[in-house]
């Protein structure tokens, strides 16, 4: 009876555990504040290390964060030119009606530069500007979206699909925090994108239909006139829909440290922009609690690798290919850092060139791999001529080709033996034997 009760209880417990939601844990635990975003990440742009992560691979809706890709597709178009002119169309203004997204307040027939267009899209998330760009640069929304998805695949975004160029909600318009990280790091490599995403104001020149105007960013971390201004913020983009929640992708730099923060699907609190305040909290947490630590300089050997064909030494010393610097907690005990080596083979044959990659090292802290570095030979080592010649001869006789020759010769020998045996057997059958019949009567006559 007890066994049956225990079995039922265990089955219930297992079922309960299986239906519990799974959450990714942080690389490090934040303290002093709460992150209400359903997905997020804080990553060092200097070392590419993740300091905080939450549901980084979970499917999310990007809202106007989509415009990071939109801007990149524009910037990489053959038609793009900073001073090139583009004209607002009636079609773009009609396409945006009823969507509820921000608009540029431009009129059909109004001309402005490609640079102005990018400011509308990156700083202000203007949907009419996004639709205009799609038609102008690629001929249609569909062709533009196809290019967005092609670019996503090319830069390594594995869990992303776009269905429109401005971030309107669609079940099939989705991404992940990890993919947003890949996209943002790629976009920041474009000088024009980086400069525009860092602005809080843009003085737009007069057009053929309107006097000059000032555009303001939706990223209040950059805006000195808001309560959310963060002095070390340097970009990038915000977004919002009811389904996507409040979203932000932001960068910050201080004292030589550079971080990227992504918070997605943060609650829409009417009293507080939680995604902005929590993003600033994460930046402060990183700046106050982490520092660069040089794990290895590349000046000291990490390990040795057995060496063949040299009369001078039996081992070659391996070094880090380049100094390894990690962002670690300021109070981290560096003695707990473990370097795990993995050589390409059990040994290496001379000659060896200095800098030749012979293995890899994993750097482990707190049971987590924080980086990988190539292991290279620390010096040039010549091969001994005699040992090398012997090795060449040995190699010839042990090569695959020689093994094939050995097999062929063996088969020929076996065939020859079989043939000889067969021939001898045939001769034996053909040999004549004289037959003398036995006649009893004749034998009796001889004895008489």
Describe the protein's topology.
Elements: H1 2-19, E1 39-44, E2 50-54, H2 67-75, E3 85-87, H3 90-95, E4 111-113, H4 114-124, H5 127-138, H6 141-154, H7 177-188, H8 191-197, E5 201-204, E6 213-216, E7 233-241, E8 245-254, E9 257-266, H9 274-289, E10 290-296, E11 303-308, E12 315-320, E13 324-329, E14 338-343, E15 348-349, E16 357-365, E17 368-377, H10 385-397, H11 400-430, H12 440-447
Parallel strand pairs: 11-15
Antiparallel strand pairs: 1-2, 1-9, 3-4, 5-6, 7-8, 8-9, 10-13, 11-12, 12-17, 14-16, 16-17
Helix pairs in contact: 4-5, 5-6
Given the C-alpha coordinates, what overall shape results? elongated
Q: What's the total count of β strands? A: 17
- Structural class assignment: alpha+beta
Overall pLDDT confidence: 88
| Spatial extent as radius of gyration | 38 Å
Please write the string of helix (H) and strand (E) elements: HEEHEHEHHHHHEEEEEHEEEEEEEEHHH
pLDDT under 50 segments (min length 5)? 1-25
Helix content estimate: 25-40%
Strand order of the largest sheet: 14-16-17-12-11-15
Most strands sheet: 6 strands, mixed
Distance between the termini: 112 Å
* Helix segment tally: 12
Sheet-strand content, in percent, reads 15-25%
């Amino acid at each position: 009876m007890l066994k049956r009760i225990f079995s039922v209880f265990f089955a219930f417990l297992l079922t309960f555990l299986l239906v519990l939601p799974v959450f990714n844990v942080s690389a490090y635990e934040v303290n002093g504040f709460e992150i209400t975003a359903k997905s997020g990440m804080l990553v060092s742009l200097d070392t590419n290390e993740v300091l905080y992560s939450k549901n980084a691979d979970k499917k999310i809706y990007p809202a106007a964060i989509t415009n990071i890709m939109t801007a990149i597709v524009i910037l990489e178009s053959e038609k793009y030119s900073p001073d090139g002119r583009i004209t607002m169309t009636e079609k773009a203004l009609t396409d945006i009606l009823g969507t509820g997204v921000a608009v540029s307040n431009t009129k059909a027939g109004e001309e402005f530069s490609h640079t102005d267009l990018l400011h509308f899209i990156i700083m202000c998330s203007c949907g009419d500007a996004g639709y205009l760009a799609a038609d102008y640069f690629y001929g249609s929304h569909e062709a533009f979206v196809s290019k967005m998805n092609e670019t996503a695949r090319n830069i390594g975004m594995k869990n992303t699909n776009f269905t429109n160029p401005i971030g309107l909600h669609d079940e099939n318009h989705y991404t992940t925090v990890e993919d947003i990280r890949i996209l943002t790091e790629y976009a920041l490599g474009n000088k024009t994108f980086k400069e525009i995403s860092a602005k809080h104001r843009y003085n737009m020149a007069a057009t053929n239909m309107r006097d000059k105007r000032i555009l303001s960013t939706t990223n209040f971390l950059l805006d000195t006139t808001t309560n959310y201004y963060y002095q070390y913020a340097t970009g990038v983009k915000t977004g919002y829909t009811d389904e996507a929640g409040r979203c932000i992708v932001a960068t910050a730099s201080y004292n030589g440290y550079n971080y990227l923060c992504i918070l997605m699907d943060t609650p829409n609190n009417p009293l507080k922009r939680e995604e902005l305040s929590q993003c600033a909290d994460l930046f402060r947490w990183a700046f106050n609690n982490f520092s660069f630590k040089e794990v290895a300089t590349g000046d000291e050997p990490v390990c040795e690798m057995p060496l063949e064909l040299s009369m001078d030494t039996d081992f070659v010393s391996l070094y880090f290919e380049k100094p390894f610097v990690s962002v670690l907690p300021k109070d981290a005990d560096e003695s707990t850092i473990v370097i795990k080596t993995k050589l390409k083979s059990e040994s290496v044959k001379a000659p060896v060139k200095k800098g030749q990659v012979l293995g890899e090292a994993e750097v482990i802290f707190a049971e987590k791999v924080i980086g990988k570095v190539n292991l290279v030979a620390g010096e040039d080592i010549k091969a001994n001529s005699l040992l090398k010649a012997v090795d060449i001869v040995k190699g010839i006789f042990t090569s695959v080709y020689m093994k094939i020759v050995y097999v062929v010769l063996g088969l020929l020998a076996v065939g020859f033996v079989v043939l000889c045996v067969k021939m001898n057997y045939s001769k034996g059958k053909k040999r004549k034997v004289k037959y003398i019949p036995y006649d009893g009567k004749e034998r009796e006559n001889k004895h008489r």
